């Protein structure tokens, strides 16, 4: 296996390792899986299946999964650590919070680094 292929598999390997760790914690402690965890297991299973069928589609689904993890929609680890902030509108009695999961941010940075050529071609093509 060459270095580029290892770099491309590194983000997926981190997610699979985190989900295996989550399963071990759930089986040995009183921690329960949430809807966020189940969504992460499902999306990761889809990424693994499509990896063997079409690597390009697999990378797109993995990127979407990581963005959902960044936005705190899916969770890969048993404890969900988020950083972020929010706004509270006292007049409307409404609150808006935006949180980013640290693990998802780490894996997303590794994903962007592994696929930096594809990202630069995409940015140059669209003129962003």
UniProtKB/TrEMBL annotation:
Alphabetical UniProt keywords: Membrane, Transmembrane, Transmembrane helix
Keyword Transmembrane helix in record: yes
Name of this chain's protein: Uncharacterized protein
Transmembrane segments: 12-33, 39-54, 61-84, 96-114
């Amino acid at each position: 296996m060459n270095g580029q292929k290892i770099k491309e598999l590194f983000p997926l390997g981190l997610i699979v390792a985190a989900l295996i760790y989550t399963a071990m914690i759930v089986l040995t402690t009183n921690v329960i899986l949430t809807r966020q965890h189940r969504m992460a297991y499902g999306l990761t299973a889809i990424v693994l299946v499509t990896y063997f069928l079409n690597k390009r589609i697999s990378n797109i689904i993995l990127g979407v999964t990581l963005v959902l993890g960044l936005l705190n929609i899916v969770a890969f680890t048993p404890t969900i650590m988020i950083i972020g902030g929010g706004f509270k509108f006292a007049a409307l009695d409404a609150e808006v919070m935006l949180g980013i999961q640290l693990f998802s941010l780490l894996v997303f940075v590794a994903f962007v680094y592994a696929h930096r050529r594809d990202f630069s071609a995409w940015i140059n093509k669209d003129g962003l």
